[in-house]
């Protein structure tokens, strides 16, 4: 997972996340040409889709329900990070991709602590493209189809 800094989050997301895994998914035949073309269209429109610029935030990087442990006291504990500096909406989008018990409670606490930019819900699909591409590379075509559908939903 290349983590070298880039000039902007959009550049980082394209060059360090989307394009490397798109190529790998295509090489592994986990995506059709049409699905890959949809992701490439998102890449070309990233500046229109990315929302307002924000400074990099420290991300968990693999924040799905299996990496959130709930204590008996109701507190959540995060495990197994793949930490890097990125856009803070990314972790929240990953939580919604695979679901999380108490997800609304987590979102409410996050917004109370650090309000999100207007329209963040509209960008969830954009932030989900990367984990969908990774899953396509590791687990096959069902995720490639889902990445293509997700990309088309943004266009």
Report on this model:
This protein has a single domain, classed as Aminoglycoside phosphotransferase (APH), C-terminal lobe (Aminoglycoside 3'-phosphotransferase, Chain: A, domain 2). Helix 1 runs antiparallel to helix 2 and helix 6 runs antiparallel to helix 7. It has a two-stranded antiparallel sheet with strand order 1-4. A two-stranded antiparallel sheet has the order 2-3. Strand 2 and strand 3 form a beta hairpin. It starts with 8 loop residues before the first helix and ends with a helix. Helix content is 55%, strand content 8%. The mean pLDDT is 93. The protein is globular. The chain has 155 residues and is mainly alpha-helical.
Give the number of helices.
7
Quaternary structure annotation: single chain
CATH class: Alpha Beta
- Beta percentage is 5-15%
Topology-level CATH name = Aminoglycoside 3'-phosphotransferase, Chain: A, domain 2
Catalogue the unreliable spans.
none
CATH homologous superfamily label? Aminoglycoside phosphotransferase (APH), C-terminal lobe
How many structurally independent domains? 1
Percent helix range = 55-70%
Order of helices and strands: HHHEEEEHHHH
DSSP strand count: 4
Straight-line N-to-C gap: 27 Å
Strand arrangement within the widest β-sheet reads 1-4
User: Would you tell me the structural class of the helices and strands?
Assistant: mainly alpha
**Average pLDDT metric:** 93
Shape: globular
Name of the CATH architecture: Alpha-Beta Complex
Which radius of gyration do the C-alpha atoms yield?
15 Å
Main sheet: strands, sense, barrel: 2 strands, antiparallel
């Amino acid at each position: 997972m290349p983590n070298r800094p880039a000039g902007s989050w959009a550049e980082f997301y394209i060059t360090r996340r989307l394009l490397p895994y798109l190529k790998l998914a295509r090489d592994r035949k986990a995506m059709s040409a049409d699905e890959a073309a949809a992701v490439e269209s998102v890449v070309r429109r990233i500046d229109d889709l990315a929302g307002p610029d924000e400074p990099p935030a420290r991300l968990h990087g693999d924040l799905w329900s299996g990496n959130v442990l709930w204590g008996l006291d109701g507190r959540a504990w995060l495990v197994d990070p793949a930490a890097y500096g990125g856009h803070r909406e990314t972790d929240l989008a990953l939580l919604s991709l695979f679901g999380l018990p108490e997800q609304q409670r987590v979102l409410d606490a996050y917004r109370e602590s650090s309000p999100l930019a207007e329209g963040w819900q509209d960008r969830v699909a954009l932030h989900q493209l990367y984990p969908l591409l990774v899953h396509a590379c590791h687990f096959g075509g069902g995720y490639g189809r889902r990445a293509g559908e997700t990309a088309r939903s943004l266009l």
